[in-house]
Amino acid sequence: MSDTESPTVDNGVNVEALVGARQALTDAPEAAAFTFKASCQWINGTHSRTTIDTFFGLGQDHERPRPHAIDGDHPEVFASEDLGATPAEIVLAGLASCLTAGVATVASYRGVKLRSVRADLEGAADLQGILGIDPDVRNGFSNVTVTFHIDADASRADLEAIVAQSQKRSAVFDMLVNPTSVQVRVA
Amino acid sequence: MYATVVVVGAGQAGLAMSAELTSRSIDHVVLERGAVAQAWRTQRWDSLRLLTPNWMSGLPGHPYDGDDPDGFETAVETADRICRYAAAIDAPVRVGQTVLSLQAPVGAESAGLGRFEVETVEGRWTCDAVVAATGAAGAPRRPAWADALPSSIEQVAARDYRRPEQLPEGPVLVVGASSSGVQIADELARAGRPVTLSVGEHVRVPRTYRGVDIYRWLDAIGQLDERWDAADDIERVRRLPSFQLIGTPERRNVDLNALQAVGVALVGKAMALDGQRLLCSGGLVREVASADLKANRLLRRIDEHIEGDSAGPTPLDPARELEPTQLGPVPTEIDVRRLAAVVWATGYRPAFDWIDPAAFDRRGRVRHDGGVAAVPGLYLLGLPTLRRRRSTLISGAGPDAADLATHLHAGLASRC
């Protein structure tokens, strides 16, 4: 499969703009330094709301047309009110959206028209970790599985290659599978 | 001292260039830090054989003439053959001439006039053109956290590894699953060592396909002759790890299935050291899936070639898919306190620190197009996919040297 074939399909991805951006950021690497931001407000109990609005990139701050809000909470089995997804589920959502966007982008680049794409995710967690019962059990997911259901005019091998490439270029996949330096402090 | 051209490095690349210059009556000298074919004698492990079969490991004008064309030569045999080649072409080699610095002509980029100054441990050469043929394996790459490993762990770069007994008793971590990494992991495991192999991006190919050596097919389908200027993304091609192959008489595989069968444990790419914990990527499943897909894609390309080529070898084994790489549960961390040794098979960068800083881009790479440097009169030779996929194979030295000698000759002529 050649990546130079001009795409003739429309999955709603602006491939030309992405190719242009890649070239522009190759020539001006300082513009590629982005900072993404989120601001979380505690509401009550385990319920909080994260607002996502501005980010920095291409040498300047960017404001969105409207902010995005994500509610987080814990389910009723943890004696919470379930007013939002659990933060661990929001991580799954981040991974799913990142990989799915990647599938659409790579498919468009490779000239594959997508009819439908669905990703089902499961994250296995042993709560003996976060509850401090067993120090040998980690807090986070012990394993995450992502299963893609894709309807498109492409062979299974081509679809597997698209899914593999979407992982190769995924920010959230990288953050989950590789260690990331995180600093938490009190202002 | 003056020579029209100074070639730095007397391996297969530098010598092939010498032959091309001689055939064009261009006066030159080949400066070699040690002896001819030095790296082949001093930077290879004892059991190493070439990955390429002998029939395709000839030197320009000197095809393989032994009695085992399908065999795999040892590193010492290769070194001996390169020495005989140097004598046969009467290459003007000056041994023991480590080059300390290369100064490009002032204003070199625009004018292309003036002369280079090459300083060696024994003197100074002035010349009109320079060919850097010191090879791709100048300095081993190691991650920054290597220095933070406990001092009790013996650390060895693949090119300094010789044999299992060289390493202290106990578990060994081999980092990198390219050709060197898988061969060393295989040898250590067969010697009874507990071996863990850290696997990032890797290139799986079977030693034989349909009963024929893989290099016979790679040659036949033209893959080895794919040009640098026809690649979709040449940087990516140049960064590709070497094939997971070993040259043995029985033509066995050293892919991840074969390694696990001899007891090698796998982890993902080693990413960071956190105290005593070496954190490894959880992305190994993806790396393996990707390598399997690409390997099978290559086999389909070979099948298509066979279908369209009635003159090829017959009879052939049936077409097949590779056995999928099997992975059990893969740990994402290693307690480094239990390691006796780490072998770094994490690749190399060319050692070009002697070259004029004017020749480099902002990321510290010599700016060049297919070996023709941005500084006029400077040439590079013997780097991955410099001008074709086979550039770093012995059989790539000749065609690359011929191309660059033609360019160099034209450049000299235009100055007169």
Rg of Cα set of chain A:
19 Å
Q: Please state how the strands of the largest beta sheet of chain A are arranged side by side.
A: 1-4-5
Beta content of chain A comes to 15-25%
Query: Low-confidence segments of chain B, ≥5 residues, pLDDT <50?
Result: none
> Biggest interface: chains and residue counts?
A-B, 17 and 17 residues
* End-to-end distance of chain B: 21 Å
Looking at the chains present, what oligomeric state does this protein adopt?
A: heterodimer
N/C terminus separation of chain A: 52 Å
Order of helices and strands of chain A: HEEEEEEHEEHH
Number of strands of chain A: 8
Mass-distribution shape of chain B? globular
Q: What about the largest sheet of chain A? A: 3 strands, antiparallel
Q: Tell me the number of strands of chain B.
A: 22
What is shown here, in short?
Chain A has helices at residues 15-27, 87-109, 156-168, 171-177, and strands spanning 35-36, 39-44, 47-52, 55-57, 60-62, 68-72, 114-124, 143-152. Chain A has 187 residues and is α+β, with helices and mostly antiparallel strands. In chain A, β4 and β5 form a beta hairpin.
